[in-house]
Specification:
Chain lengths: 319, 522
């Protein structure tokens, strides 16, 4: 396993390096810079020049890149141009909120998939099949900015049972019951498409497993259908579902940008969006690098889990 | 062996969990909307919940540029004087008396005694000197910096006395004193990082969580009397639909940055009112690059001004929260002259006649605006339509907000641009020395004219911003603006705040800074 990991490491590092160059250049290719935002609409040129100098934007591109890379390697992420705070602190706070939201969404998605996937694969009722097909199609097809607004209007404005957005005023861990109420709408909104995809994949893989010869053998031995699905077929279907889940983690992070904006959830998505709009280069660079790193790590992690769940891969890797 | 039946046990557990949840949990909605009723008797206590669509940019604290900044400045800081919203007569605030001598070159101010900063330190004349000096630092880009730089020396003969020495008299000195927030020198370094904002105002800044919220508690030692509210909690809600939903659901009692159409929908259900910030007017305008082919002829620029259907823009875009104008001045301004202001009324025939007089075809003109700003986008489309009626083809070029500001301050717009400006609600000369689109020395329009520069300087260097001499100077300035037409004013418009009927006594300054010192929840 460790050799398997070592073999993967150089390509992962190369991806990270290329990503750092690309991110650095792409954000600077967008016209307009942070100095203009900080200077505001009534600033004379000398003010803009002073701010550019202050931010180090008057240095050469290579110089700026090396300075940033040096900081990154030494753990000094710098200060945000616009928010003014330490980037490590900002990203830490945002990351905490995003992780809470993403994990909640992931839990909802996994629970829904584990409940509905086997049901869909095993059902003989046409109505259940239709209902689940409808759920799958709606969950995959409806964009989060539609489900988000609908959820807010129904539960926040019409029935007024849940907050329309934001985070608990006294912090996430002050009152868990209050936190749960703030979390439920954004988490459902974010988790729904993933739940749809995951349910579909799991059901389809289960159907494939149920057609395997060993299932016929088990059935001939008189094992109940429910036990066949949950005890035998599910074990065979899970590795594929886990890989799908890994890929969907990316979708969750991408979806978080919109969901956080709709529900005023102060996570990384909102930070990225603001950072790009206001050309907050250091902040955006760190955030995008973080996204790339998370992707690389998640892929690595799912490969490992996959290898652990599937002996064929594990044996192939160690032989 | 008899196994315990699984299904009934699971059911019982689920029911118990549901019951527990229902009884033990407090509703997060109730926790936010506890105060109810609409009675108007002042009552102490409660935290006002506010929603804003933009987050704070600490480095822009002195620029009045967004709703979070104007909220923080209004709650935390005081100024030396304060204009009321109808006139430009300064009223005492941290300065209680003042006297001008030496033909307007010296101003002696007496300061209020017993005022304390939120840190407990006593406010003195040294803080006035420090605040005025900070304001001229280019990194803060204070918009009245050109006026602040006229102050050559600040003497502090006593803790409660400040003497300002001016290079030459300026008619807008009190605009500066109404604008500069008095900051605490000991903690000023924390402003840029957003860690601490220390002033002498009615509310004490507690904390800022970027992209999340700002918290304030009441200043019990406030010189104007402790506020009724225990505190203020400002939530950052960037999505416009969510902001409206937050007001409708009662999660916030006051929202800033709600769009004009959204405000209509928010108020439709009752219990919510949209209040235009009168006295803190903004101006919607179309800027003109006077070096662009075609637009380099004043007749074409005047044709543009005549072609604009301002009534339609006010009605459709600003939902009647404003009125059409030809000049930047609001009706309360000493420079307002109905006759001059009526010059460019919607008149397509006149626009066509001016173009005919010009005699050559006008090339296609690009019109820049902030693409994701609904107000700017709709305005640009109407302008395109209006100019097409007169025979001018306009190409819409949406850009993002940062690029727009960069092009504006870099004077890089190739043709026309649509946006808004401020500062015409103050002494008229403030506009021509502070607002970049009007700056006589260098502006986004590339416009320069000795007559305009002279008129602007003359209006500025008056010992008083009001009176017969000032009125004549403003008239000349207006005349120059109308003749030059380097920007075509559309309308005086108002920012709106959307307020629930549970929050009373909300006030604001001429710079849209929120004043909740007398606000209360009923």
């Amino acid at each position: 396993m460790s050799r398997y990991l070592l073999r993967r490491a150089p390509s992962a590092l190369l991806v990270l390096f290329l990503a750092s160059v690309l991110i650095f250049l792409v954000i600077r290719a967008i016209p307009g810079d942070a100095a203009a935002v900080l200077a505001g609409p009534d600033a004379p040129p000398e003010v803009v020049a002073a701010i550019r100098h202050d931010l180090g934007l008057d240095r050469s591109l290579v110089g700026q890149y090396l300075h940033w890379l040096g900081g990154l390697l030494t753990g000094e992420l710098g200060r945000s141009y616009l928010i003014g705070g330490d980037i490590a602190e900002l990203v830490g706070d945002g990351l905490g909120n995003t992780v809470v939201l993403t994990l909640a969404a992931l839990v909802i998605a996994v629970l829904v998939a584990l409940l509905l996937g086997p049901l869909w694969a095993a059902t003989r009722s046409r109505w259940v099949d239709r209902a689940l097909t409808a759920f799958h199609t709606a969950a995959v097809a409806l964009p989060t900015f539609v489900t988000g607004v609908v959820l807010i209007i129904v539960f926040g404005v019409v029935f007024r049972v849940l907050p329309t957005g934001g985070v608990p005023p006294d912090g996430m861990f002050d009152r868990l019951d209050i936190t749960a109420q703030y979390l439920v709408l954004p988490a459902v909104c974010l988790g729904l498409p993933v739940a749809g995809v995951l349910t579909g994949f799991l059901a389809e893989t289960l159907r494939g497993e149920l057609r395997q010869d060993y299932v016929t053998t088990v059935r001939a031995a008189g094992v109940r259908r429910r036990d066949i699905v949950l005890g035998h077929a599910l074990r065979g279907a899970l590795p594929v579902a886990v890989t799908t889940l890994g890929l969907q983690a990316g979708a969750l992070l991408g979806g978080a940008v919109l969901v956080e904006s709709i529900f005023a959830w102060p996570g990384l998505g909102l930070l990225v969006e603001q950072g790009i709009t206001r050309r907050d280069y250091p902040l955006v660079q760190v955030l995008l690098m973080l996204s790339v790193a998370v992707f690389v790590l998640v892929q690595l992690f799912t490969d490992v889990v996959h290898a652990w769940l599937d002996p064929r891969i594990r044996l192939g890797a160690t032989s | 062996m008899n196994a315990v039946p699984r299904r009934p046990v699971l059911r019982a557990l689920a029911a118990a969990a549901l019951l527990l949840t229902a009884t033990a949990c407090e509703s997060a909605v109730d926790a936010q909307t506890r105060s109810g009723g609409a009675s108007a008797a002042p009552r102490a206590g409660g935290v006002a919940e506010l929603g804003v669509n933009l987050d704070l940019v600490p480095a822009n604290l002195f620029t009045n540029s967004n709703v979070s900044i104007t909220t923080v400045v209004g709650l935390v800081y005081d100024t030396l004087v304060r204009y009321d919203r109808k006139s430009l007569t300064p009223a005492p605030r941290l300065a209680t008396e003042w006297a001008a001598t030496d033909g307007g070159r010296t101003l002696t101010l007496t300061l209020r005694q017993g005022v304390k900063f939120h840190t407990g330190r006593a406010f003195t004349s040294a803080d006035v000197k420090f605040s005025l000096a900070s304001y001229t630092d280019p990194k803060w880009n204070g918009q009245l910096a050109s006026t602040a730089k006229v102050i050559t020396a600040v003497d502090t003969p006593a803790p409660d006395q400040v003497v300002l020495h001016l290079e030459h008299p300026v008619g807008n000195l009190f605009d500066l004193l109404d604008t500069v927030p008095i900051i605490d020198s000991a903690t000023a370094a924390d402003i840029g990082t957003g860690k601490r904002f220390v002033g002498t105002g009615p509310f004490v800044f507690d904390a800022w969580r970027p992209n999340t919220d700002l918290r304030f508690t009441r200043n019990l030692d406030y010189w104007g009397g402790a506020p009724y509210l225990d505190g203020v909690h400002v939530r950052v809600i960037p999505d416009s639909q969510s902001l409206v939903a937050a007001v409708k659901s009662g999660q916030v009692q006051l929202a800033r940055g709600v769009g004009y159409r959204d405000a209509e929908s928010a108020t439709a259900g009752g219990g919510v009112a949209a209040i235009p910030l009168e006295g803190a007017e903004l101006q919607a305008y179309v800027g003109v690059n006077v070096t662009s082919p075609g637009l380099d002829d004043p007749r074409v620029r005047q044709a543009v001004a005549y072609a604009l259907d301002k009534e339609r823009i006010v009605k459709e875009v600003y939902r009647d929260k404003g009125y059409p104008v030809s000049l930047p001045w609001p009706r309360t301004s000493p420079a307002y002259d109905p006759q001059l202001d009526g010059r460019y009324r919607h008149d397509v025939a006149k626009a066509k006649a001016l173009l005919a007089e010009y005699g050559r075809p006008v090339p296609e003109i690009p019109l820049a605006y902030v693409g994701n700003d609904q107000v700017a986008a709709t305005t640009a489309q109407i302008v395109q339509n209006n100019l097409a009626e007169a025979g001018i083809t306009v190409q819409l070029t949406p850009v993002d907000s940062t690029q727009f500001v960069k092009q504006l301050i870099g004077a890089q717009f190739p043709g026309l641009w649509a946006t808004n400006h401020s500062w015409a609600q103050f002494t008229p000369s403030t506009l021509t020395v502070s607002a970049y689109p009007f700056n006589a020395r260098r502006n986004s329009s590339h416009f320069s004219s000795p007559a305009y520069t002279a008129a602007a300087e003359n209006a500025w260097q008056l010992p008083s911003g009001t009176g017969a001499e000032a009125t004549a100077a403003y008239r000349e300035l207006s005349q120059q603006l109308l003749d030059g037409t380097f920007l075509a004013e559309i309308a005086v418009v108002f920012e709106q705040i959307v307020v629930r009927d549970t929050l009373h006594g909300v006030d604001w300054s001429r710079r849209r800074e929120l004043d909740l010192s007398k606000a209360f929840l009923a």
